[in-house]
């Protein structure tokens, strides 16, 4: 094939891939309608990076490279958006807009990598057909082609794995031709592996392949050193949490449930084989890769020739990678955990063909085999792309009708209580608040920058019912239903899973049935959504519950030196009480908070719920559990290395007068 046509040909498949991605992104419903996981997790941590404070609260994957990349994407999108607000306000006001464009940028990166990686393959193998075969790799991965495109680690790993394949394939070809590896090429693979493992730890199985490619201890040491070193570089923002990350991974390894749950058991053999069988039957490309490698290994062992030891080492390494990844999938089944070995299907076929050529050079004409194989892969890829029609079953539900009703009929200051769907505790609704709540809880809750103050301004009077705990919450934390009823005479309830009677039972719980009247004002038969209007008998509520407000520091400011704890007041509490304590603190990066303590427990919290140019208001709350009558000491604590100034401490105590 004429070389001047090669760049043009190598542009075709990246453009097609990008077109598919754009189609899926535009075809998908908003992420808060269906599942905010993980888009809103990466959105919230990306906000922290874009805002310049670099506090990342999520470390499970660990996923840090995507958090950082999302942050820079958000900053870039905001730079060109001209929306008029600061970056945090813009993102929280238009979360789906930012998720959309972050996902588009990730898709552009993937298309560019597919072209650049193919060009690297072309330069190494001197074959356009081999470069085109490389570009077919992502088209054979069915769940990536037919599934929704969103801001998630797999979206970044698509690009990282393509780079890894391009680099290791060129190294393999050098060794196949009798050449030696350079130190820079080994370091390059190590850096890419460190990036992959930092994005998702299940990528660690890919480290096996270059270990088997390297033939000396020195080259393996360089590989391992660069992998570990780059992993630590790519996870710099979560260095303080690497211990927790290690505990999380150890918990997964030593328990037979998902994410470290279940019994202490390294492997549950019954579920292991069931999960492996499930993965193999859903994605037949894995079986194809294993079969051709086993055939190639058998041929190599039976035909001792010059390259036999090298081929045995390489094929064994790739097979070992398949085995390790299948054990990971079998232990904790999720189809996307098979992604590393799904990227090995075409490289495995390529290794098998090279093995056949070496031992049976007259069996096929090499110049015919590459285009024939390419035609076969393109045909299979085309059939798999045809399966994109499967997206039809996920076509956007008719949520717009519900959104329109709420926007037209609910007054802006009327409180809204959102009941989650049936999948996870914070899934999901036609309104973005549920997605934002999910992102805050699963990403921002361990950082100082929880964004509560901004969320309260943009989405005021918003409450959530947490199916996991069966409690009501606001942006800050748990809150009793009766406190909402004390503050509001009318509020609306949105639900995708609860009937009118179920809503009544949950809200009233042990309260008098006459306290509220509930009316269903909207039903979306297509989606099962319901909207209820609740009216509260404020007079009965005010008689049943009392509220007292106490100024704790009598208008004086308090300055705490570094590493100081200052007890403020001891109060008596009893079952059913609910207390809130707030304090204004001069803006600081020094960790400091309000502490509640008695002989049974200790709570501390420094959540910022309001701020101005100089100060910020921090908050802590506590719902006294049943069978609990005791005293509680309120203190201020500064655990940082600088002094902190507090003022206007206030205690609000709610009490059931029964």
Describe this structure in words.
It is elongated and about 95 Å long. It starts with 5 loop residues before the first helix and ends with a strand. α4 crosses α6 (95-125), α5 (87-93) crosses α6 and α15 packs antiparallel against α16. The strands form three sheets. The protein has a six-stranded mixed sheet with strand order 3-2-1-4-6-5. A hairpin with a 4-residue loop joins β5 and β6. The chain is an alpha+beta fold. The longest helix is centred in the first third of the chain and has 31 residues, at 95-125. Residues 387-395 have low confidence and may be disordered. The chain is 51% helix and 17% strand.
Detail the topology: elements first, then pairings.
Blueprint: H1 6-27, H2 31-34, H3 39-50, H4 64-81, H5 87-93, H6 95-125, H7 128-135, H8 142-146, H9 153-176, H10 183-199, H11 208-213, H12 217-234, H13 242-254, H14 269-282, H15 284-302, H16 308-331, H17 339-342, H18 345-359, H19 366-386, H20 400-409, E1 416-419, H21 433-444, H22 452-458, E2 462-466, E3 471-473, H23 481-487, E4 490-495, H24 500-508, E5 516-524, E6 529-536, H25 538-544, E7 545-551, E8 558-560, E9 564-573, E10 578-586, E11 592-597, E12 602-605, E13 607-611, E14 615-623, E15 630-638, E16 644-656
Parallel strand pairs: 1-2, 1-4
Antiparallel strand pairs: 2-3, 4-6, 5-6, 7-16, 8-16, 9-15, 10-14, 10-16, 11-12, 11-15, 13-14
